[in-house]
Amino acid sequence: MDLKRRIEEFKEMEYEFNKDFYATIKEQQHPHTLFIACSDSRVDAETLFQAHAGEIFQIRNVANIVPREEEPDTHPSVVSAIEYAVIVLGVENLIVCGHSNCGGCAAIRNLEKYKEKLPYTAEWISQSITISDYIDYRYPDMKEEDKIIMLEKLNAVQQLDNLMTYEFVRKRVEAGDLNLQAYYYNIGTGTISVYDYDSVFSDMIKEITSNRKLMYELKTQADSFNHIE
């Protein structure tokens, strides 16, 4: 892959033919949407929305995860970008996009295997382990491939609940001036399923969140006890 040549072609073709457009965005950005998606290279916001540069503010990470507000020690870089998009840029839409054949979700299903091989990845995706555990508990006879699909969808919707733990998100959503949704992109068919915060998965998410809070409290208590010792 000749990246240098691609950069040259951008300047020669794309930029030179659209100078007027780039002149309009050179000073400031005014994106209408914050798009939180998996790092997977097959998920491209500009392609999905048929958007131009400057329209979409993006956050990408493994398995499109948003840390919860009550777990402050987990990766503030994600939250800082959300804060900037919601408060400073004033985006109108906040979208979390999961997708089919997600390697991050597949890894959540085999978390112990990755703890030694990819410790940073394992630590990050462990934030969604309660979703995987819930699926095993509720649907013990479900085929593994179907469990992964359910995890991919539930994981995307779970992030909406995680986002609502932040007051600056919650206030705008409740005021009706921030559209909060989860998407599930099926790469093989090109279909995108849309889920609102109050979706068909709401009851499941409430139970998963309750379990997650309990696990976090137990971990905090254990850490405090070990620190005293």
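(the above was protein one; protein two follows)
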Amino acid sequence: MSEPTPNALVVREDSMAPAAVQARIAYAKSLAASSLLPDAYRERPANVLLAIEYGQALGIKPIAALNGINVIKGKPTMSADLMASVVRKAGHKLRIRQEGMSVHAQLVRADDPDFTYEVVWDEARARRAQLWGQRGPWSLYPEQMLRSRAITEVCRQGASDCLYGVIYAPEEMTTEEHGPGVDDYLGPDDTVAQLRQECEDLVHRFVRKFGGDPEQIAQEWMDQGGTANPPALTAWLTARIPQPQPQPQPQEPVDDEVVEGEIIEEENTND
């Protein structure tokens, strides 16, 4: 094995030094020339470089990033399998159980082993989301699509901190996949996903403290015209907090009457 020369430059993958950046650009250009890459990266070195940078943040190798990360409308996405791998690599436990057309996904954080995040995707829920039977994967591979939705949702709920903003699968970002109303979310396109995640977190914190069904609460919010607006959702949830009923105070008999600062004894009607 040849040893590096004394004046050789050692470049860290995450370094922003000019030499390191130029090295990654050259690497991306070389990869982009390959005919084996997905169409989004072929002959597009800038896209290749962006995927590699996302992979670096997620702790995955460039080849895994290029095969598992897709940028849709400027937003990075990754497959459910890659998301599961990233979450497990971070030390969290992810369990998937499938029973027919029902998929249960559970996540237990390494730093909070006493609480389990759980998500269920089944045919009924897919129908409510107007996904069931859609042309494409939902009609061809419904079991796999249910599994993908369960994995990505539970990972967003319990381990979004290790996803670095890459919190959706490609099919969740395409127009055909979304039900009506998704385009009505407030905020610029580059912040919609973050706003939606904040709203999901608010609902689940509310449920953990006060109880309830998170899906039902979210549906009620949307039925009332609610959008991905965390402050408005916070106010709406606050109004739903159960208020303790005041206990009636016993009334004590009053023998005196106060008139203009003076105490006057009530007349005895027996006199």
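Reviewer note on protein two: Residues 121 and 150 are 6 Å apart (CA to CA).
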